[in-house]
Amino acid sequence: MEQLMSILDVVNGVIWHEYVLYIVLGVGVLFTLWSGVGQYRALTHGAQVIRGKYDDKNDPGAINHFQALSAALSATVGLGNIAGVGVAIALGGPGAIFYMWLVGIFGMALKMTEVTQSMMFRNTDNPDEPHGGPMFVAARGFKDRGMGGIGKIVGGIFVVTLLISTITGGNMFQAWAVSDVTSKDFGVPVQVTGIILAVIVGMVILGGIKRIGAVAGRIVPFMCVIYLLGAFYVLAMTFDQIPSMLVLIVKSAFNPAEAQGAFIGGSVGFALLWGMKRALFSSEAGQGSSPIAHSAAKTDEPVREGIVAGLEPFIDTIVVCTLTSLVILATGAWNRGEEASYKNIGVNVIQADVTNTESPSWTLDARYLPERSAEAKRIEGDWKTGIETNVFMLLEVDTVNEDTGTQITRLNGTAHFESEMGDDGTFVVNWDSLENPTPPRIVDHGVYVEYPGASLTSHAFNIVQPGMGKYLVVIAAWLFAISTMISWSYYGEQGVVYLFGTKAVLPYKFIYCLMILVASAGFIKTDAQLDNLTALGTGVMLWANIPIMLIFGSLAMKAYKDYIRRLKSGELDSHAPASITDVVEGKDVE
User: Do the domain assignments include residue 45?
Assistant: First the structure.
């Protein structure tokens, strides 16, 4: 696992170079200006479209605008909003949220453009089962320019990146996060969670896009309401902290927040990196995945569905991600204090390998885990038997880390219960080691608990109301993960159809469910490992899709301006909105 993570570190260092982030943001700015701030149309006209005001049952497509939006949102409003925001703040600090906002705003323009393109070039030979996405944009768009061979190659490259992202971020990330938080809060073995997820997802995806759309149309509104009500409760309890936290987000985006507690620091560049990475992963803006779901929408107006798609980054990033970030910041979970201490027991830095004098490595001589503090017990209970608890201590090394802007670093350890130790057993820690020319200095003797991803959000809820995160976040995590996984399975399926035809769909679905079991096997343990996996999928898709967007962007913008002209002049047919029940169930287009 360590060797794999080292390889992913190198690869992600290239595909997530800071210049790549600037390019993606720049493309978002480009289409914002080109469309005349089309975000406004998404928030106004887009809201009317999803109410069924422009639906026509005779148009080609399989599902209505609301169900297409729900299917796409079920892939975006997910664990990226719970776990991804936690990762961004834990590693990049409060300033990362500011850059998430930028991606959310300009991502609306990215999403509008890429979906419009896909709707223009989708395959509707079978009106009830249309196929679309950037691969079809490339294949058919280049063919129209007399370069069909190049189009097939470019489309194939995109599909390869799509399948990488499907397996990593769309599947394994979700399965791991759910199994991890369920294990930590309820002691359910991660393998059991994996089996349950695989069965549920398998039952849904075998029904195709119509079943996916129907399930998503019901799950997404329900899961959003449940989660948002919990978030509003926590923010009501910490209302006095919200103004200062909003100020902290903006200040930290340009002036790194001081290292304190469990947060060991984050430079401006690091905040930018983590904010944009997690926002792009969460909203999928510019990634080219959502256009696949939207291509199933029943409409003969490509721009109309593009405008609907513009709502996604707003709902996902500006609303849901912001609420999660405020919960984590206002409760102090991001810079939480120690949960146990070696002050009264004693701990020393010792050389891990006394034979290596050229590159000495250091560890701790503390074998036993101290008793958890009274406050930590109130929030999370006592140390749990039967599962491993990832902990860390803070050490000061000789050099400043460019990413964090501080000399403080974490020394990780794994705590577990050993029944053989003493009469009743006890908790012991196996500490990692780190290289440093001289012995590192112990900062505060405190033992901190690692709360990766969704676990940090759960901990934040528990600070306000002990036990709340245990149920709310776990329930939300299950709903979010299932909805995301079923939507991403469809994305990957369309890529498989493009490359291999419909005969490969059933084997693909089997492999997809199998990877859920692999991800839930307990191999991933930390935020950094989790990010390595998801960053790979998101990054390679951006590299493939952004060039396609730029090459065919003028076609989308020409169609967009013509549609807005006809909308303003009243040329577009409309009727009274359908009932909410009919819209949710898709009866308005039956």
Answer: yes
Residue 186, domain member (yes or no): yes
- Segment 512-554, tens digit of pLDDT: 999 999 888 766 666 566 667 667 777 788 888 999 999 999 9
Residues 430-439 have pLDDT tens digits of 999 999 999 9
Task: Please give the share of the chain, as a percent, with pLDDT higher than 90.
Answer: 34
Distance, in Å, from the CA atom of 583 to the CA atom of 590, rounded to the nearest integer, reads 11
Domain presence at residue 470: no
- For residues 65, 121, 286 and 222, what is the CA-based torsion angle, rounded to 10 degrees? 20
CB of 531 closer than 8 Å to CB of 172: no
CB atoms within 10 A of CB 9: 12
CA–CA distance, 485 with 493 (Å, rounded to integer): 12
Same domain? For 422 and 310 the reply is: no
> Do 181 and 199 share a structural domain?
yes
Spatial separation of the C-alpha atoms in residues 353 and 360, rounded to whole Å:
7
Cα 165 from Cα 75, distance rounded (Å): 12
Residues 494, 288: Cα–Cα separation, whole Å: 12
d(CA 313, CA 55): 23
Of residues 55, 33, 48, the one with CA closest to residue 113: 33
pLDDT digits (tens, 9 = 90+) for 75-107: 777 666 777 788 788 888 888 899 889 889 999
Handedness of CA 208, 213, 214, 219 (dihedral sign): positive
The verdict on 257 and 313 lying in the same domain is yes
pTM value? 0.83
DSSP 8-class letter at 286 = T
Residues 18, 276 contacting (CB under 8 angstroms): no
**CA–CA separation, 513 and 502 (whole Å):** 18
* Same-domain check for residues 29 and 136: yes
10 within some domain: no
State residue 78's pLDDT score.
67
Q: Can you tell me whether residue 401 is helix, strand or coil?
A: strand
Check whether residue 326 and residue 344 sit in a common domain.
no
Residue whose C-alpha is closest to residue 530's, from 104, 193, 20, 85: 85
Q: DSSP letters of 305-361? A: HHHHHTHHHIIIIIIIIHHHHHHHHHTT-TT---SEE-TTT---EEES-TT--SS-E
Residues 6+ apart with CB under 8 A from 114: 134, 286, 288, 290, 291, 309, 545, 549
Rounded to whole angstroms, how far apart are CA atoms 111 and 580?
Answer: 25
Residues 444 and 510 in one domain: no
Q: Which of 295, 281, 324 lies closest to 533, judged by CA?
A: 281
Claim to verify: residue 344 and residue 408 sit in the same structural domain = yes
* Segments forming the whole domain that contains residue 297: 17-333+479-582
Say if residues 151 and 138 touch (Cβ distance below 8 Å): yes
Separation between Cα atoms, residue 273 and residue 262, nearest integer Å:
20
Spatial CA neighbour of 541 closest among 139, 165, 275: 165
Rounded distance, CA 555 to CA 287, Å? 19
| Spatial separation of the C-alpha atoms in residues 95 and 363, rounded to whole Å | 32
Clarify whether residues 278 and 380 are in a common domain. no
Last residue of a domain, one of 450, 471, 506: 450
How many other C-beta atoms lie within 10 A of the C-beta of residue 576? Answer: 8
The domain tally of the chain equals 2
Can you read off the two tokens belonging to residue 547?
A: 């060039």
In the structure, what pLDDT confidence band is assigned to residue 480 with cuts at 50, 70 and 90? Answer: confident
